[in-house]
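Open question from group meeting: does this chain pack into something compact, or does most of it stay loose? Before anyone orders reagents, we agreed to write out a predicted structure and look at it together. Recording both the input and the output here so the notebook holds the full record.
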Amino acid sequence: MSYLVLARKYRPRSFTEMVGQEHVVQALTNALVRQRLHHAYLFTGTRGVGKTTVSRILAKSLNCVGPDGTGGITAEPCGVCNACRDIDSGRYVDYVELDAASNRGVDEISQLLDQAVYKPVVGRFKVYMIDEVHMLTMTAFNAMLKTLEEPPEYLKFVLATTDPQKVPVTVLSRCLQFNLRPMAPQTVQAHLEQVLQAESVPADIGALRLLSRAARGSMRDALSLADQAIAFGGGALEEAAVRQMLGAVDRGHVVRIIEAVAASDGVALVRTVDELRGLGLSAAGTLEELAMLAQQMALVQAVPDAADPNDPDTPAVQALAPLLGPDETQVLYSIALHGRAELALAPDEYSGLMMVLLRLLAFRPQGGAAVVAAPAVPAARPAPSPRPAAPPQAAPRSAVSSRELLRPAAASARLAVVPPAPVPAPPPAPAAAAKPVTLAPWEAGPPADWDDIPLEGDPAPLPVRAAMPAAASVSASAPVAEADALDDPLVTRWTALFTDLTAQGNLNGLVRELAWQAQCLALDEQTTPKRVVLRVERESLRQQGHRDRLQAALGELLGDAVTLEVVAGAITDSAARRDSARRVQAQNDAEAVITGDPMVVELLVRYPTARIVPGSIRPMA
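C-alpha cells returned:
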C-alpha cells in the first residue's frame, strides 16, 4: 500500500476537527443548525488554510443521512454513511470540484451549468465547488452570473480563491464571503504535536517551533515540512536536524549579535558574520531571526509579564532585554526589518548583512560621539521678546532628534554659521519725545516655537542645511579647502577629456557614470597605444562591457588606439567630486552675498520677525 502524506491523512473530516478557523466554523455551524443556508459561499485565504476542506465538510453536512439512513441536514456529519464516505474519497456524483486554473473558459463553465437543471442523483443537494475561481475569464464569470444569483433550490455553489481582488464585484455580491486567516505559529505547533503523537514520531519542542514558523500560517505546509523532517531525521524530529534542513539560523548567533551591539563591539559583530558565512546560513534568515528576537525584547521591556513561560527562549530574551533601551530596541527592529529588502541590492548577501549590522552600531544612540550644541548668535538689536542665549554644552546622543540622527556628519558640517559683524544701532530718540511704544501684533516677537511652525509656501529645507539665523553669514572655508585639494593634474586632464566625450555624445548611461566618477591614475598619451588607468569605487561600474565601450569612445576621440585599465579602490578626486565642490562653493557664495547685503541686514534689523527662509537661496549658475 502506498504511503499517504500527513497533509491528506490528517485532513479534517468534520468541523470539530478544524483548527485555527473558529470564526468560519461557528458561522457555518449556526447556519446548518438553524437551516439558514445561503445558495453561494466564497472562501478566501492563502494556501493551506482549509478552503477545500471546509467545502467538503459543508457538502457532507448538506447530504449526510446518518448511520441509519434517516438523518437530515446536520452540522456534525456522521462520516460513515455513503454520502460522507464518497465525498471524502472524491467519488460522490452530486459533489463536483472544478479547478478553474485548468478549466477557465466559458465552454467549461457552460458545460457545468448545463447540468444544473437536473436534480441530484443520489444526494439531497448538488454542490459545485470551483477552486481558484479568480482564474476564470471574464466571459466565464458573466456566463455564470444568472445561475449564481438564482440557482435551483437543490444547488449550492462553493467558490474558493487565494486572490479575491481579481473576482468581479458582481460575483462577490452574490456570495456569502468567509476569509480564512493564516494560522498562528502556536496553533500550528499544537496541531503538529497531536499529529506526531498519533504517528508515534518523537519530536523536540524546538523542532516543532521551527516547523510552525517556517509554515507561514499554512497547515498544509507545516505537515509537508513535517513529512520532510521525518525523512531527513530518520524517523525523529530533532531541532539541530530540522534547523539544518530548513537552513534556519541558530538563535545563538543572533544573541551574540545583540550582545555585540549592546557592547559596541564591532570586532565581535564582524566575527559573527564570518561564522554565518562559513556555515552557509542565510543572511535574510539572520535578519528575520534578529527582528523576531527584537520584537520579543520590546514586548518584555514594555510588559514584563507578557513573556511566555513555556517558551524555552524566554530566559534568553529576558536576559537580553536590559542590555538595550526601548528606543534602541525599536531602532534594532526597524533596521533589521528594512535591511532584508536591501539584501537584493547588495553586491552579495553577506556584504549586505555586514552593512546592516554595522548600521546598528552607527545608529545606536549611546554609541556615537556627543553632539555639541552651537552657541546662540548674539542679537545686534533690541528685541521685544528676546530668547535667552543658551551656553555651549554637550547634548547627550539620546536627546538628539531622529532628523539629526539620520543626517550625515560630513554633510552637516558643510555650512558653518559665524556671528555677523556688529551693526551700529540707530541713535536714541530725545528723552522729551520718549513715550510708551505699543507694538502691533505683526511687529511682536516670534513665539517660543516659531521655528517649528512652517510658513505657507515655504520650500522644504534641505536635509543638510541648518536654519539660518537673522543677519548671519556663511563661512565657505571648508568647501574652498576641499576645492583647493582637488588639483591633481591627471584628473584635470581626464575631466577635460570627459567634457569632450560628453559634447560629442559618445557617453551615456553607466558608461558616462564610469567616466564621471573615476579617478585618473595614469594617462600616457605619448605611447602607442595610449594608456589610461582609472580607479573606480563602485563594482557595478567596473563591468567589462562598460570598460570596453569607454575605451572605444576614447579611441574615437583621440584618433588612436587606447588601452584602458580599470582598478578598484577609494576615490579622492574625480570629475564628479569637482563638480560637487563647485556647486557647494557656488551655493555658499550666493548665501554669503545675500546675508551680507546691506539692504538685507537693514530689513532684518528693522523687522524683528523677519527671517531668511532656509533653502530659498539658489546660485544663478
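Observations to bring back to the group:
The first helix runs from residue 6 to 9.
The first strand starts at residue 40 and ends at 44.
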